[in-house]
Each structure stands twice: as C-alpha cells, then as structure tokens.
Amino acid sequence: MTSNEFQISNHTLDSHTVLGVVYAASAFLIWGISPIYWKALRALPAFEIILHRMVWSFFFLLPLIIMMRRWQEFVGALKNHRTLLMLLFTALMVGTNWLLYIWAVNHDRLLQASLGYYINPLVNVVLGMLFLKERLRTLQILAVLLAAVGVIYLTFSYGQFPWIALTLGVTFGLYGLIRKIAPVGSLVGLTVETLLLSIPALFYLFYLDSHGRGAIFRVNLKTDLMLMGCALVTAIPLLFFTLGARRLYLSTVGLLQYIAPSCMFILAVFLFREPFSSAQVVTFILIWTALAIYSTDSMRYYRGKI
C-alpha cells in the first residue's frame, strides 16, 4: 500500500468513526433529554402513555421495514416459534422498562431512573456471568461490589429498597441479554416486539375510548400529536444507536451510554428540582467510581484485543 492509499484508508476510517460517535451520542442525548417530553404528558396516566408508545411505534417502524427491504426477515421472525418466544420475553421486558421509566419521570423519581441506567452496565456484567458463563476480571468484580455497596447504603439510609433503579437496570439488562442471542436484527426485533405489545394495547385503547376515558382526540391537538410522536422518541434514537454501534468499538459505545443517565441526573437536580439527599450523593459517588473502574478496565481489555 502506498502512502497516499494509506492516508485515504486512514481518513475513511476516521470519518467512519466520527460518524459513529455522532450517531451514538445523538441517540443517548435524545434518550437523556426525553424526560422533558414525558413530563409534558404527565397529566395522563403512565399506562395510557405507554400503550400509545407501543402502538404508534409499530405504525412508524413497519413502513421502515418495507422501505429497508427487511420484510422477509420480519415475516421469518414471526414464523420461527423459538425467535418469536424470545421476542415475546424481550417485549415484556422493554414494555415494563418503558412503563416504569415514564411513571418514574412523571412521579418525580427521575433520580432513581438515572441511577437505574447508571448501574445497567454493571448489571450486564453480572448477567453475563450468570447466564453466559463469562468470567469476571478483577476490576469488574471491584466495580460490581462498589455498586452493591452503594445500593445497600441507600437502602439502609432511606429505609426503602431502591426498587425503581434496580428494576430499570435489571429489565433493560435482561432485554439486552436475550436480544444478544436472538437471531434477529435490531430494527426487525423492535418491530416484532412492538407488534406483540400493540395488539393488547390497541384492545385496551379501544376499551378506554368506548367508555369515554381515553385521551386521544378528546383533550386537544397538542396532546394528540404528542401521543403519536411517542413513536419518534422511541424509534429515532434506536436507529441512531444501531447506526452508531456498527461503526464503533464496544468500549466506545460503553462510554457514550453514560450520556443518557447523566442528562437525566442534570434534569432531575437542576430543572425538575428533585430533592437530592446526602445518602443519594454517597450512592452516586460510589456508582460513578464503579463505572470509572469498569470503563477503564473495558478500554484496556478491548484495546488489547485490537
């Protein structure tokens, strides 16, 4: 390879990486500031919001499947009983995660939600050990222990188990675990999941409408558009994430993912003025320390494999 060819190849690689960072960072930023969107719908029950999120997401994703020529893969996933069963489980996990997240945002529990997404990478490490027989490195063990100390400290200080944070972390971790081994792409998998969720969601929305209790087409045009717009808040960052993840090393994606809970943390403390106690300060410091150890270990590990 000549020097000119090497420069061209290196420039292409750099551009590829930069574009990947832009896509992935955009995805995590959208997820991070999405509480502002959900807060605007706080007058509605979280359960009704999540039903609309499921239904409108499916109607948004289905045309993408057709335009991107993924229809055969979509039909194949529906016909494969094993794949369909796996996606039914992931649909339940992501549906639970979405519902609890929106409930937490609209009930002034965003700090706990951000904590849940901070500990998610560490939950992934534990799940990998339990279900994929992955061996933990020494620094990974230290990071998990620090996070556990943080959760235990918060539990004893508050006298209340931080169930929101742990449920969000575990459900998203289980979702990622099963999707990792499911033989289906990100877009097709999400479309099947939203289809499975939107069938009972549609029935319940029709039930609400027939009893004059549904919000859609009853409140105002802004509410109608925002309920339909749930699809964009769901699908666009996911597509950005997929485009970014394909261009980046896993360690880079791992570092960028902290953008989302960091934005949630800033919004909770400075915009929504949620109370931030000394117990929470200690817990977050322990979690952040654990993540710093985990991230440093991951970067060294993946650099060694390149």
Describe this structure in words.
The structure is a single chain. With about 300 residues, this protein is mostly helical. The chain has one domain. Helix content is about 85%, strand content about 0%. The protein contains 13 helices and no strands. Helix 2 crosses helix 4 and helix 4 packs across helix 8. It starts with a helix and ends with a helix. The N terminus is likely disordered.
Explain briefly what this protein structure is.
The chain is an all-alpha fold and 306 residues long. Helices cover 83% and strands 0% of the residues.
Strand content: under 5%
Total helical elements: 13
Helix content: over 70%
Number of strands: 0
| Mean pLDDT metric | 86
Distance between the termini: 21 Å
Query: Helices and strands, in N-to-C order?
Result: HHHHHHHHHHHHH
How would the blueprint of this fold be written?
Blueprint: H1 3-39, H2 46-67, H3 71-79, H4 81-106, H5 110-131, H6 138-158, H7 163-181, H8 186-210, H9 221-228, H10 230-245, H11 250-256, H12 259-271, H13 278-305
Keywords:
306 residues, mainly alpha, 13 helices, 83% helix, globular, disordered N terminus
